[in-house]
Specification:
Elements lengths: L1 H11 L55 H5 L10 H20 L3 E12 L2 E2 L3 E8 L5 E6 L7 E5 L7 E4 L10 E3 L4 H4 L11 H18 L3 E11 L2 E10 L10 E7 L5 E7 L10 H8 E11 L19
Antiparallel strand pairs: 1-2, 1-3, 1-12, 3-4, 4-5, 5-6, 6-7, 8-9, 9-10, 10-11, 11-12
Helix pairs in contact: 3-5
């Protein structure tokens, strides 16, 4: 009975506010997310092995909403991709990146996120992650900011399907709690379940939207911006804008950075729709409608993680 009461008490204060105090194990050195990008546009050169047909595309502004149907009817010439071809190029990159990530048994990475949930923008969080793909999916997360020291462990090797949450800060003295990743308590904390965590999960989420854009064939404008550097990696940069919420109810605009060598997303910023944004500048509108801001830094594919790194019995985790 006492154990049950302690567990209920722990869950009740899962997301309450206390002064953060370090607890648990640090995985990698924390580095703050890079600064926001200034958007400037360039033509889209034909990518090697991208399997796309060159087509004429007039230079467009970031907010241009010319329909895909008009663009894809342009005659082939030059070295520039049309709207739908640019989306296809993005899809091919991400599909290749997905294959690359699936070839990795495990890796470590720093994950930075900023999300709007139920209309409220949550504080920016930086999380050190261990991710395993084989022999089963598993992830360990350790908060470097915010509720510093919080730990979350999920492995589908456990039949109960739960993630284990160990509090940080002053709550580090409380026992760990098992939580269903799909329950309301978990959804109040993040927009996506831990079962979709990691680089591969991000790729699959983005691909779902881009493939729907290709299937529909209109309603979205996609341009490739000038390449940029992120966390020491040269990146392809894409800007997508939707004409109307009926084409994407969640996103009005998306900015995506894809590693030009490994073809994995290193940063994505998504902006939702505004109810009263007519009087706002583009910068003010973006600030008011930012709904998701995610990035990955310090990706290490040679970490040689062990079984204990994803075990609830790991003494370092104190779970």
């Amino acid at each position: 009975m006492l154990a049950a009461c302690v567990t209920v008490f722990s869950v009740a204060i899962l997301y309450s506010s206390f002064d953060p105090v370090p607890a648990g194990e640090d995985l990698v050195n924390y580095d703050p997310p890079p600064a926001a990008y200034v958007i400037d546009q360039s033509d889209v050169p034909v990518a090697p092995d991208a399997n796309v047909t060159p087509a004429t595309q007039a230079e467009q502004s970031a907010n241009n909403t010319t329909t895909a149907a008009t663009e894809t009817s342009s005659p082939a010439q030059g070295g520039v991709l049309s709207n739908m071809e640019t989306i296809k190029f993005c899809v091919l990159l991400l599909q290749d990146g997905a294959r690359y990530m699936k070839s990795l048994n495990d890796y470590t990475v720093n994950f930075h996120r900023e999300e709007r949930i139920d209309g409220d923008m949550k504080e920016q969080q930086s999380i050190a992650m261990k991710v395993q793909h084989l022999p089963n999916f598993a992830v360990y997360m350790n908060w470097q900011t915010g509720d510093r020291g919080r730990q979350v462990l999920f492995s589908d090797a456990y039949e109960d399907g739960c993630m284990v949450v160990k509090f940080g800060g002053i709550r580090r003295f409380l026992p760990a709690v098992r939580v269903d990743p799909t329950c309301g308590l978990a959804k109040a904390e993040t927009r996506y379940p831990i079962t979709e965590a990691g680089v591969l999960g991000m790729i699959e989420q983005i691909l779902a939207h881009r493939q729907e854009d290709l299937k529909r064939g209109h309603g979205v404008n996609c341009v490739r911006l000038t390449n940029d550097e992120f966390d020491g990696h040269q990146c392809y940069r894409f800007l997508l804008t939707y004409e109307d919420p009926k084409f994407n109810a969640a996103y009005r605009k998306s900015i995506l950075l894809v590693d030009s060598r490994r073809h994995i997303p290193l940063m994505v910023r998504n902006f939702t729709w505004a109810t009263d944004g007519e009087e706002l500048s583009e910068e003010e509108l973006d600030k008011a409608t930012l709904i998701e801001n995610y990035s990955f830094t310090k990706l290490d594919m040679n970490s040689e993680l062990a079984v204990a790194d994803f075990s609830r019995e790991n003494p370092k985790y104190r779970m």
